[in-house]
Amino acid sequence: MSHAPLPRPQLLQITWPIYSEQLLHLLVGVFGVWLVSRLSDDAAAAYGLSNQIMLTFMITFRFVSVGASVVVTQYIGAGDRDGAEQVARASLGANAWMGIASCVIIALGASSLLSLMNTPASLLPTAKPYLIAVGVMLAFDAVNFSMGAVLRAHTYTRDTLRLIVVMYVIQLALSLPLMFGFAGWGGLGMNGLAVAAVIGRACSFFMHRRLWIERLGIRASFEDYWRIRPGRLREMLHIGLPGAGENVVYRVCFMIILAMIADMGPAALATHTYTMQIVHFLLLFALAIGFGTEIVVGHRVGAGEFHGADRQVRGGLLIGFCVCVTTVVATALVGPRLLGLFTRDPEVIATGSTLLWLNLLVEPGRTLNLVVINGLRATGDARFPVGFGVFSMFAVAVGLSWLLGVHLGWGLAGVWVAYGADEWVRGLAMAARWHYRGWVPHARRTLRRVRLRQPRPA
């Protein structure tokens, strides 16, 4: 049975909790690096390599969670709460299986995965047990991704933020005693951090379940965690596969460019690493405004309010540009001081400062790209962004990085110009797609689907 549509969500009201959540993830990650560095440099290196493997697995969870988020917003916008609930339940089963499969692959193939990363033999005794221990976390993360995406799609972004805060408080409170010991016990070293992370994710799972019951009225059954619902899964993967596939391609291109930078020498690699730590903070708002736009536009499209969807994307761009330019300029002005937190090398600080100013070329393009792509995805227009994105990332980002940075000898400045060119080429293509209403036929098909599809038994 369908219900009346919920009040239309407001962009900024749902964006700031998403931004805070992203910032918290980043800060906890930085703190984790600092904690393991207290053990040894080898531990920090093993931690970094293991986390790269973990991040690769986590991308696969986005196939379902991204699609679930968008499809749920469309059903809510249409006033079909039952359809939204069925999609939510279907996302649990799909991601639960992927989480379990990830755990098994890591448990059985940790050595092979670390070898693929060219892990030095001296790090294997530290990295392997940590990777296996933290791999258990993926089973919880997979389901938590789906539950969190569904809550955000219902605009409960403040609740998900509170949940993440509690999860990290538990994790960090346990990390210190489990890693370094207490009351005469020596602790587990880096494996203590893994155990704390698993416990934190387990607590997060139970908190998500509670929120589903209290906020959504959905009490997930045991069957929901193992049953695959092909019809609903197809709906989610229509959106989620292209969206997550774009992230995979971006990651591959980034690794190729990173290999080019490594050939420029240790100073260039260090400069890139330190500058990117700062850049990660700068792009958080663009990510948040993009996710917020996706949620709001999905609601509008499900309700048949195409003009409202158009206004939301344009409004999101205006907000995004204003915040982006302000933060980039402010960061560039204090760039030498920020880089001085990482290194005392004057060459690294000077080059990094130049890159932070060049970021004025990169970040507005990235904001344009993220906001419009998320808007397109929310309408159901998911394939064009990834198709054009694959071309641009390889031809512009990778190609120009080689041409300018390596062949012409511009070094990191050439790489940054290539980053900016790629973001602007993709962003302008997406903006043209939106401006000339190439998304409208997809939005109409989406509207027909959510209005005509009869609710199915769970």
UniProtKB/TrEMBL annotation:
GO MF assignments: antiporter activity; xenobiotic transmembrane transporter activity
Cellular component terms (Gene Ontology): plasma membrane
Membrane topology: Multi-pass membrane protein
Membrane-spanning intervals of the chain: 52-76, 96-117, 129-151, 163-182, 248-268, 274-297, 317-335, 388-410
InterPro entries registered for this protein in UniProt: MATE_fam, MdtK-like, YsiQ
UniProt keyword terms in alphabetical order: Cell membrane, Membrane, Transmembrane, Transmembrane helix, Transport
Pfam (any one): MatE
Coiled-coil features, chain-numbered ranges: none
First-listed, main subcellular location of the protein, grouped into a coarse class: membrane
Taxonomy, superkingdom: Bacteria
Protein's cellular compartments: Cell membrane
Protein name per Swiss-Prot or TrEMBL: Multidrug transporter MatE
Organism, as annotated: Sorangium cellulosum
Gene from which the chain derives: matE
